[in-house]
Amino acid sequence: MTDASLSKSHCPTRVEFGRQVWTRVAEIVQENNWSKVLLLTDPGLKGSRLHRSLVSSLESLGIELEEFDGIDPEPTDKNVVSALRVSSALSPHALVVLGGGSAIDVAKAVAIVATNGGEISDYEGIDTFDVPPLPLIAIPTTAGTGSEVSGAAVITDTLRNSKMAIRHAHYGPATYAILDPEAISTTPQHVAIHSGIDAFVHAFESYLSKLANPFTDAQNLHAIRLISDNLRPYVANRENQDAAFNMLCASSMAAMSFGTTGTGNVHCMAMALGSKYPIPHGLANAVCLPHVAEFNFIATPQRFAILAATMGIDTRGLSTLDAGRKAITAIKELCDDLNVPPRLRDVGVEKKDLPEISEKCFLLNYNRWNPRWTTEKDFLTLLQKAY
């Protein structure tokens, strides 16, 4: 854990949550006197009941509304450029986004460039802009990325074939987050699995981070408890409103925390793999998670012991080491129950590319946050074990 004098906790997003809370969107627009709104939507949600209802509620206010849905599953700078064309023609007062992490990241990128100018690649890194973005209302339709409250947006730079992380703890998160279980009731099963594991990894890695603090610990442990109890039933039945609601809350809690603490080797490896292969981010996380958990265990066995108890494992009478190892077993069982592919080869990774990917991993410098120092050779060993 970092020195207490350097610890912090910050979430500028106003979070509203509950059933039918999506109806608040039109009220928020009206309260702020926003007369021109750009709506960004995941293409698969265009024409859905929730999309139609949202459009109708905004149009009933006489709002000048334009829509954009040209968003790839792994968002690119080209998606941002296309959305900015629509935004420039409208000059909106605010953005509304209905979608998963990809759509929300594109919306955040558009909001940044619309007020700061230039291209989204100009803002790669941490705190690289200082003009507030356009106001953004985010309605997540997956329970996983937590992009609605996180300070980060991840966009693929198609020229460099690499993923850019644009981070700003204050200006990065959406202005409003609308957490409604109805919005994730039609999530395809494979997306529910990948995004749910992604949320777990956010909480898991944030809890183990070198920068963890009492505030982030509280959020992360409760997120882990909620995910451990609700991810399986949510995947089994996305219309389980209680499980869906708890997954949405857990996802946002974890994202509020990792904006402060950073993540770790799971995300580092997923970022490097995603820049080489079209693997969904959550799936890459899921495949790497058990291997990284085993690697990081010796750095902080006490925290692993707490994780085991949080995940519902009876650790009474066990030593710290034995209790901590139970967390690794519980993680493997979670992945098995959700039919996560066990190996990188199962998701299309080729063995010949592992040295290049390990080099990328090391250069990403997640050693800032990961509890165990990891060399390029360590990354190669991890990738080979995962392969």
UniProtKB/TrEMBL annotation:
CDD domains: Fe-ADH (cd08551). InterPro entries: ADH_Fe/GldA, ADH_Fe_C, ADH_Fe_CS, Alcohol_dehydrogenase_Fe. It holds the Pfam family ADH_Fe_C. Residues 12-181 form the Alcohol dehydrogenase iron-type/glycerol dehydrogenase GldA domain. It comes from the Bacteria. Its cofactor is Fe cation. PROSITE patterns: ADH_IRON_1. Gene3D superfamilies: 3.40.50.1970, Dehydroquinate synthase-like - alpha domain (1.20.1090.10). Keywords: NAD, Oxidoreductase. Belongs to the iron-containing alcohol dehydrogenase family. This is Iron-containing alcohol dehydrogenase. The lineage of its organism: Bacteria, Pseudomonadati, Pseudomonadota, Gammaproteobacteria, Oceanospirillales.
